[in-house]
């Protein structure tokens, strides 16, 4: 299926994915096209951050869906340092 990833600048990246693709694999495809390492990517769909270990099907993605890409701030791993995440 074809999906789009929209950056904060409004640029749209078209990707061809399968329903069983994990979010981590989608991030790898974004890296191939944009050169942004997956560790710096945060993908948002339906107003929620997508977890790397979930699949496109888990999020009910359909062809034509648009994900939003935001970049993680550089620095320490927030998940490791915050008990609230």
From TrEMBL:
One of the Pfam families matching this protein, by short name: ubiquitin
Q: Does the keyword Calcium apply?
A: no
Keywords tagged on the record: Ubl conjugation pathway
What's the name of the protein?
Nedd8-like protein
Question: Where would I find the Ubiquitin-like domain in this sequence?
Answer: 1-76
